[in-house]
Amino acid sequence: MKIVSVISKNSIFWMVFMLLLAIPCILMFIRGIIIFQFKVANILFMLLLALSLLFFIIYLKQIKYVVIKHSKLKYYSVFHPFGKILDLNNYQYKLTVNEQGKNGGYEVLYLIDSKNKASFKLMQLHYQNFEDLKTALNLTDLKYNLTFKEYVKLLFFGKLILAVNRS
Fold first, then answer.
1. Which tens digit of pLDDT belongs to each residue from 97-127?
2. Sheet with 140-141, side-by-side order of all strands
3. I need a surface site. Which of 3, 93, 103, 106 has the fewest CB within 10 A?
């Protein structure tokens, strides 16, 4: 059985928009480093550019074209244009977390490996066939109540070692 992700049009629009914005930001950042002068306005502008680039990177990292075939998950992204293969046999659980955004609630799916490390993230916002992708992953659903600190780590970094015996 082979399942291929269908990236939502909204995510494609934002991905293209972010890539187009990232290019001038990178150029301005490089130019700012070359001709940097220690003035408060320059420092604040460089800080704003750096934070913008960080935001672009975090957003672009989350959009992946996913193919699930048998016990392999292959994904393509801006940072993995030739694809990266994950062996689903190395993962024990899938953790579903409900998050709230501007457009309402949505689900985020994390794959948990044998060391209880959450390391792969799929967001419902980016996929039209999220439920198909979720059911294609033949992993046990993990019932786990995240603490606020764990939730923030997952939200911003996408990686976390869970204390599974705690729940």
1. 888 877 788 999 999 988 888 888 899 999 9
2. 140-141, 91-101, 104-113, 117-123, 160-161
3. 103
